[in-house]
Amino acid sequence: MAKLTEISKPKASTSWGSGLLFFTVAIVAVALIVVQLDTYETVAYPLHELGETMYVPARKNSASLSGVEKIGSGQLIAPEDIIYDPKSGVAYTGCHDGWIKRVTLSDSLTESVVENWVNTGGRPLGLAVDESGDVFVADGYKGLLKVSIDDGKVELLTDEAEGVKVGLADGVVVTKSGMVYFTDATYKYNYRSALNDLLEGRPHGRLLSYDPSTKQTKVIARDLYFANGVELSPDQDFVIFCETFMRRCSRYYLEGEKKGTIDIFAKNLPGLPDNVRYDGNGHYWMALPWDNSLMFTYTQKYPFVRKIFAFTLKHLRKMPDLMKFGGVIVLDLEGKVVGGYYDETWGMTSAGVKIGESLYLGSVTKPYITRLNLTQHPLSLIS
Ligand SMILES: *[C@@H]1O[C@H](CO)[C@@H](O)[C@H](O)[C@H]1NC(C)=O
């Protein structure tokens, strides 16, 4: 046996080698043809619009790891957005099981109480509280909802604009006068199939407004690349809205000389923006669930790579893990990044809200809200 192996080895390995090569080439060729024939169409992103890289963050921020607390561990399934009502001292968060949970915050973890408040029957994402304490919900399946603070009654405000159904309501704000601005991340896909929107590369997102006095829904901005987080400026003279897949946020002016116009607030961000929240003190806190990794860059750059991923997603229900790092960046009033908290374990962070001297992080994967003591971890530039 040993002898036979020795004698036949050189010849066998050559033919094995070329056989394997042929086999591999054949498989790849067939796979490419099959993928190419797939009807799913992917298109190029307008990458020239990204411009200069704003800054490159360090990929590890070990400081953020020490002393992190977990609020509502096990009771909060993927708490996506967090909103704080300073009048009642209560925070709300929307979970994957449809529950909007009420969280009474306390310095002591054991005294931080999590309660079931209202179940929308959908997927509550972005949240906003108005002057009276009513909660507005961008529900990923249902559209724009309003929950009454008095009796917890859920009302559907709107789920379409210009005859086009809202596919994935994502972020929401409400002004002092009661106007609601919210995003439809993509009218083509829904919450479950949102990844296909990234892979396709077409702008199906919209910024919408809802006027409670006329009950009218208007399209403010269209052709957005996954319209996600929204926030009002401190004077409520503009609304910031983020396009996740283009790593940028724009502003729509509500007042002043530029009223009715749109310009860029921050672009070429170091990751993909999700919810953004003003802290009442000169800074916007913007969640970046995904890092701008090399893997993501290539995926975005090459439509054919996205076509392969779309194919594997459709047939194997799997996609490679494109990004791990995530966290929160902090922008000043002009949209300049002044720092952040960023970590390998904070991928899929969907909200960063500063309440008092603590940072509260929402996530679409974790079963709790993460709290970081900002007195112990003062803000600094990550780079
Ligand atoms: C944060 O840290 C400071 C300084 O160590 C401490 O005084 C404060 O109580 C902490 N806050 C919370 C919410 O634990």
UniProtKB/TrEMBL annotation:
This is Strictosidine synthase conserved region domain-containing protein. One of its GO terms (molecular function) is hydrolase activity. It is found in: Vacuole. Belongs to the strictosidine synthase family. The chain crosses the membrane at residues 20-37. Pfam families: SSL_N, Str_synth. The keyword Metal-binding does not apply. Residues 173-256 form the Strictosidine synthase conserved region domain. Keywords: Glycoprotein, Membrane, Transmembrane, Transmembrane helix, Vacuole. GO terms for cellular component: endomembrane system; vacuole.
